[in-house]
Every structure is written in C-alpha cells, then in structure tokens.
Amino acid sequence: MARFDRIEGSWGIEPVPERLRVLGTLDTGLLWGNLGVSLLVVVAGAALVPALSLPSALLAIVIGCAIGNTMLGLAGAIGADARVPGMVLLRAPLGKQGSYLPTGVNVLQGLGWSIFELLIIATAAAALSDELFGFRAQWLWTIVFGAFALALALLGPIGFVRRFVRRVAVWAVPIALVYLTWWALDGADLGALWDAPGAGGLSVWQGADIVVAITVSWAPLAADYTRFSTTRRAAGIGTGLGYLVPDAWLLALGAVLVLSRDLTDPAALPAAVVAAGFAAILALFALLVTETDEAFANTYSAAVSLQNLMPRAPQALLVALVAGAATTGALLIDLVSYQSFLLLLGSVFVPLFAVLLADWLAAGRHYAAEDVFAAPAWRPGLIAAWIAGFALYQWLFPTGPSWWVDLVENLDPPAWGIGATVPSFLASFGIASMVALLSRRSAAGAAPA
C-alpha cells in the first residue's frame, strides 16, 4: 500500500492520491517560475555572445524558449496524468529495466546541477561577505547552503511551495530581476550593442540548441513535481509558462551582460554585482536566497530518481545522501565546461522526451497505473528510437568530453548550421510513434476475445 511520509509531500513512487493533488495552475506556475530564476541561466545566455550578434542571440533565445518550454509543459502534463515520478514514468515507454538507463543519467544530472548551483551560490555569498564583513570563506557558504538545500528538499514539493515560494520567493525574485536588469542596461550604448556584428562560430539554430538544453534538462524532472498538480491542464500551463518568463528574461540578460559589462566568466558575475553598491548587494542577496531552490530541486529529483532503482529506500535518507555528495563535490571542483555540459544533456533528453511523448500519444494520451507498473522489462524498439535521436544529435553537433568530440568528428559531421534539437526530436518521435503504434496493435490483436 502507498505510504505518505511524515515529511509533507514526500511521496514515494506510487501514483499520488487525489487528496495530495493540491498544486493548481498558480502554484505550479510559481514553483516553475522560481526554478527558472538562476544565475546559471544567465551563464547560458552569456554563452551565445559574442559568437552571435545581439539580435541573433535574442532570436536564438526566442526559438529555443518556444521549443524548450513547449517540451517542458508537455512533460509536466504527462507527469500529472500518470501521477508518478519522472524516472518511474519512463517505465511505460522503455520498460522497467529499460528505465534504469535514463535513471542513471538523471541521477548524475541532478547531482551535477546541484554541484553547479552550490558553486554559484557559494561564490556569490563569498563575494557578499567579503564586501560586507571582510572575509570570503567560500567553503563555509558551500556547507551552509548545502544544508539549506537539504532542508528544502526534505519539505517535498508541496511544503516547498507553501513554506518557501509563497512566503519568500514570490517577493524576492521580481525585485532582484528588475534591479539586475537595470544594472545591466545602465550606461550601456544599446544602439552600439545592437549593431555590433557577431564574431562567428555559432549559428542561430546552434544557439537555440543551448537554450533548449538548459530548459529540456528539467523535462525528466517535471513529473516529480507535477504529479502533485490538480489537473493535466494546471500542470502543463503552470510548468510551460511559469518557466518561460524567467527563462527568456535571464537568458537575454546574460547576453546583454557580456556585451555591456564584458562579463564572460560566470564566477566573476557576483563580485561585479556587489561592486555596484548597496542596492546591488540587496538584489544579489535576494537572488542568492531564491537560487537555493535550484539546488533543492536537483537534490530532491536525484533522490526520487534513485527510488526507481531502490523503491523501498527511505526518501529522506536518499535526499541526505545526494545533498552530502553535492556539497562535497562543490567543495572539490571548479565551474568548467558549462556549455558542453548543457549540450550533452540536451542530446540525451531531447530524444528521450520525444520517445515518451510518442508512446503517451499512442496510448491515447493517458497512462494508467498498469502501463507503468506492469510494463515489460524492456521495450527495445523505443530504446532504439532514443539512441537513434541521441546519435543524430551528436553527429549534427558533437559535444561532450574532448575525447568524445574527437571520436564523433571522425565521422565527418556536416557543417549545416541547422542545430540538432529539432532533427533529433523528429527522428526519435517518428521512429517511436511507428514502434509504439505497431506494438499496441500487435498486443491488441493477441489479446483474448
């Protein structure tokens, strides 16, 4: 029988009961709007320039946000339909054991994002404490905010929205965003920035790939939260539109910051903001507090993903283990290869979402509990569709560790500049649609009268 932990909203892998489906469109939108506010999104926007001109970078942001947030909203709606966590949901298209493949990737993703977030948060906090009190102690801030992320993750999605988003983030986020935007534009020659040509090396569609990657990296996690939404509609609209607004805003802000303030190093951003005066310090502090929710989300989702492998393990224990590993990682590594990390995630999760969407549509736009929990061990045809999309993405736009990129480039990737997101999505979606429809017709024909 399903068990509800004492921690509010800390449900296991079973379908969430109706009594806990309490997050409406507004609450879901606030949750995802808050998750979209991150200095790492600013960093992703900064990666678009000066390779692209400002108009081209903004076009890439519009295209990428339209594609990425549509995928994210649909992922949220499917999660609300099935009412199970994201990695458990993938049992339906990939099979129970087949879902273990993306589960492993998603645990690494959640841990990696948590480390990145704690690095950014600790760097910003160290800059603030250095300005205000004369000491940095970045290691101390890493531990403090790692513990804060742990506390938020133990609340679960419902407790997080009710106790943190509604009371703190809903006020702090707009103030921080408005001030940082003013700071980025203050004194800048917008006409000169607009007319400056790009340096080259990146097409608009390849820039859109970067934007999609940072958005679609949330798609495997969406169901972890939208399973608590009241309806599919509330989940889809709240997720897609809630994340869209801060996503586009901060990506554009990142592109402008590079051109107006010459900030190409993400670690340099907090110190530059602090140097702008007391108002900037308050804005950065507000953003710093809300930034912790990103670490919360990735810590929570990594733990919930692990429950797909170990359903009987206490969720609180898994949360604590992931938070401890992320904090340790943030103490030991530096922020490097961020763009490659984003694109590598996109190449995995764009075709994976295409497979999920195709199978869900083939199932009549509804996953019953038996589709998830009575799934076969493997669905090789749909796993092959996922791998095919990943291979096409990498062939069109090789990314990842240098040894991997060198290996792929031996296959002579084309220099078409069309990006990889749309082709890889369409390839996986087309293959998966045919496989899913054929398998369901075959199963229906084999069923006893």
Distance between the termini: 32 Å
Please state the CA-atom Rg, rounded to the nearest Å: 21 Å
Which consecutive residue ranges, at least 5 long each, have pLDDT under 50?
A: 1-8
Order of helices and strands: HHHHHHHHHHHHHHHHHHH
Largest sheet: none
Name the structural class.
mainly alpha
Morphology call: globular
The helical percent reads over 70%
Strand content: under 5%
The tally of helices reads 19
- Mean pLDDT over the residues: 86
How many strands appear in the DSSP assignment? 0
Key features of this structure:
449 residues; mainly alpha; disordered N terminus
Textual characterization of the structure:
- With 449 residues, the protein is mainly alpha-helical.
- The protein is 74% helix and 0% strand.
- The protein contains 19 helices and no strands.
- The longest helix is centred in the middle third of the chain and has 48 residues, at 138-185.
- The radius of gyration is 21 Å and the shape is globular.
- Mean pLDDT is 86; it is low at 1-8.
Strand-helix topology:
Elements: H1 25-35, H2 39-46, H3 54-82, H4 86-89, H5 91-94, H6 100-133, H7 138-185, H8 190-195, H9 204-216, H10 219-226, H11 232-261, H12 269-274, H13 278-309, H14 315-332, H15 338-362, H16 369-373, H17 380-396, H18 402-409, H19 421-446
Helix pairs in contact: 1-7, 1-11, 2-11, 3-9, 3-10, 3-11, 6-7, 6-13, 6-14, 7-11, 7-13, 7-14, 9-15, 13-14, 15-17, 15-19, 17-19
